[in-house]
Specification:
Layout (H helix, E strand, L loop, with lengths): L1 H15 L9 E5 L6 H12 L4 E5 L1 H9 L6 E3 L4 H8 L8 E6 L1 E6 L13 H11 L6 E5 L5 H12 L10 E4 L2 H8 L4 E7 H5 L1 H4 L2 E5 L8 E7 L5 H9 L3 H9 L13
Parallel strand pairs: 1-2, 1-3, 6-7, 6-8
Antiparallel strand pairs: 3-10, 4-10, 5-8, 5-9
Helix pairs in contact: 2-11, 3-4
Keywords: Metal-binding, Molybdenum, Signal
InterPro entries: AvModA-like_subst-bd (IPR044084), ModA (IPR005950), ModA/WtpA (IPR050682)
Organism: Billgrantia gudaonensis
Length: 267
């Protein structure tokens, strides 16, 4: 009964957001892909005539929803753990494939202050902590919630690497996912935030912001895996296969994602 109730709640949510249509598979997509994905979906339609519907969110939340029976047919996670756990629990057809590797970036609004240098990318965090300690305000620092967002976990690891996690606690504001964290990073009371590089490159974000990459070895690799959910239909299968082809990989590269076989610090 509980599983049916969870499934019903998930289905109701999808219906309310207009994402369930007859014959059109629903794809769960990590928020780091929010700006790249419309281009991917359009290119897929142009080539095949097929359509999919997209739900964006935090990978950890999708993992839970799929485990509760949410009617997704394909899941593109921002990590590997969520996919591999779902496969172990019997919800995906197999372990899926790595489709991209992401990067973390410091993002701030233009005019918010000096952009940190590439060799000291968290300088703005230290400055914000110093200002707060001196009673000069409370400049916010945005990141996704590490409990269910892979980019949030990477942000925490980067702050821990710089010995800034504990000191930044009074200033941190958590987004439900990395896309929301990017919105918070550009808000009026924020000094900036740690977000997906792909979001920083999006034209609507780039025109009013600036960014610096966080060294890749400051956090665990952001290896992004996708898999078909048990019972997926033919359109979802076609989209899954197409996402592994060169045209899709070229689009992903424009948004700062490395290919599945890329090694090391490629950006």
């Amino acid at each position: 009964m509980r599983a049916l109730t969870h499934w019903g709640l998930a289905l109701s949510l999808l219906l309310l957001t207009g994402t369930v249509q007859a014959g059109m598979p629903v794809v769960a997509v990590a928020s780091s892909l929010q700006f790249a994905f419309p281009e991917l979906v359009a290119a897929f339609h142009d080539e095949t005539g097929l359509d999919v519907r997209i739900n964006y969110g935090a990978s950890g939340n999708f993992r839970r929803q799929i485990g509760q029976g949410a009617p997704f047919e394909l899941f593109l996670s921002a990590d590997e753990v969520s996919i591999l756990a779902l496969h172990e629990e019997g919800f995906t057809e197999d372990e899926g494939v790595v489709y991209a590797k992401g990067r973390l970036a410091w993002l701030q609004r233009v005019g918010r202050g000096d952009l940190p240098a590439s060799d000291d990318p968290l300088a703005a965090v230290r400055q914000a902590i110093a200002r707060h300690s001196a009673g000069e305000g409370r400049p916010r620092l945005a990141l996704a919630n590490p409990e269910h967002a892979p980019y949030g976990m990477a942000a925490r690891q980067a702050l821990e690497h710089a010995d800034l996690w504990e000191a930044s606690a009074p200033l941190r504001v958590m987004g439900e996912n990395v896309s929301q964290a990017a919105q918070f990073a550009l808000s009026d009371d924020a000094r900036g935030g740690l977000v997906a590089y792909s979001l920083a490159l999006a034209p609507t974000v780039a025109e009013r912001s600036e960014h610096v990459l966080i060294p890749a070895d400051w956090h665990a690799p952001l290896v992004q895996r996708m898999a078909l959910i048990e019972g997926a239909g033919e359109t979802a299968r076609a989209f899954y296969a197409w996402l592994q082809e060169q045209e899709a990989q070229v689009i992903l590269a424009r948004y700062g994602f490395s290919g599945p076989d890329a090694e090391g610090d490629t950006h």
